[in-house]
């Protein structure tokens, strides 16, 4: 693997990891705040942040070669090639995609279980005056974040089960952008 290929893979993996963080943590927070605030400026800022994040991700994925040239990442090395043994670019991509999807599941699973417990506790608690007093004694269920964590786990599972297709897609965008 050449140095340029290595840095191209690293930039695309960083973009993929940043996309998962943005989609499952930043964007839900921005949009839940924008929906709860009911202010047009807040909604405009949430949409603007979404557009900036999407633009940066596309720049990282489709402009990896330009970033390497701009930052001169492939200059100053003694060797032209980086040896990883029998691992090829696509294999490194597949391993990294599995790790990123696994982190997505691991990060969201405890929160999902906590929200499941709170929802179960809320549904089984007695209603009435005791139920109103108990509402202050424990944490309330955040159904929006509950849904986001469930979707995150589902997408992490789907990415793990389809890691080869995702790696092939990223690898194809690599080969299309090679000068």
Structural description of this entry:
The chain is mainly alpha-helical. 79% of the residues lie in helices and 0% in strands. The protein contains seven helices and no strands. The two termini are 16 Å apart. The mean pLDDT is 80.
Characteristic key phrases:
179 residues, mainly alpha, flat
Helices and strands, with pairings:
Blueprint: H1 3-37, H2 40-62, H3 64-71, H4 89-124, H5 129-134, H6 143-161, H7 163-177
Helix % is: over 70%
Shape: flat
The radius of gyration computed from the alpha-carbon positions, rounded to a whole number of angstroms, is: 22 Å
Count of β-strands: 0
Mean pLDDT: 80
Largest sheet: none
- Alpha carbon gap, first and last residue: 16 Å
Which range does the strand content fall in? Answer: under 5%
Spans with pLDDT under 50 lasting ≥5 residues? none
Please identify the structural class as seen in this structure.
Answer: mainly alpha
| Tally of alpha and pi helices | 7
Order of helices and strands: HHHHHHH
């Amino acid at each position: 693997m050449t140095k340029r290929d290595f840095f191209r893979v690293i930039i695309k993996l960083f973009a993929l990891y940043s996309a998962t963080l943005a989609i499952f943590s930043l964007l839900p927070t921005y949009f839940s705040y924008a929906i709860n605030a009911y202010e047009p400026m807040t909604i405009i800022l949430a949409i603007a942040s979404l557009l900036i994040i999407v633009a940066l991700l596309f720049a990282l994925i489709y402009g990896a070669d330009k970033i390497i040239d701009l930052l001169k990442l492939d200059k100053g090395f003694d060797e032209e090639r980086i040896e990883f043994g029998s691992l090829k670019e696509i294999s490194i991509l597949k391993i990294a995609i599995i790790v990123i999807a696994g982190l997505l599941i691991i990060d969201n699973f405890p929160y999902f279980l906590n929200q499941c417990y709170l929802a179960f506790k809320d549904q089984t608690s007695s209603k009435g005056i005791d139920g109103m007093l108990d509402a202050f004694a424990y944490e309330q269920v955040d159904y929006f974040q509950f849904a986001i964590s469930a979707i995150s786990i589902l997408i992490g599972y789907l990415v793990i089960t389809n890691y080869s297709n995702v790696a092939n897609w990223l690898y194809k965008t690599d080969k299309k952008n090679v000068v």
